[in-house]
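Incident log, structure service

09:12 report received: a user says their structure output differs between two submissions of the same chain.
09:20 pulled the input from the user's history:
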Amino acid sequence: MKSTEKRNILILIGVGIIIIATIWLCTKLGNKEEKETPNLPEVSSASQGEYTKVEQDGSIVNTSEKLHQDREESGFTVSNISFAEINGKTVLKARITNKTGINQDSFFGSIVLLDKAGKEIGRIPVTVAKTQKGETVEIEAYITESYANAYDFRLEK
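09:34 re-ran on a clean worker, output below:
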């Protein structure tokens, strides 16, 4: 081998080492920046608002006192109301007591969500189980849209 061939081979090896070192450094610095950024739960900005707070687990809980008040709706008492956005679903849970004075068959209804002005902002379908007069049952209604910031609701039969 001639000396110029040896020199060219050494230059290629040197350039290769520089390229590998550069790639390695970029990878190390990129990983360090990722580690410094904490993994925070993703929260939909549309669901944050005046009547919500974000819990440590990332769920968004409705804080409206009006929404959580017990109420009489269509002959039923609605109580023990919880309303939150959990894992991308807006969920309303409550206890419903049949105060109509007669036994009621199961029915499909709607949870009509309202803003502070009383304007409808969304609907969540709900099924209420068959109830005897005076009987209390649990309901759970959910939708995959973000309505956690509602001010109030009404139950439509």
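09:41 both user submissions now match this output. Likely a transient worker issue. Closing.
09:42 reviewer note: Residues 66 and 82 are 12 Å apart (CA to CA). Residues 37-47 have pLDDT under 50 and may be disordered.
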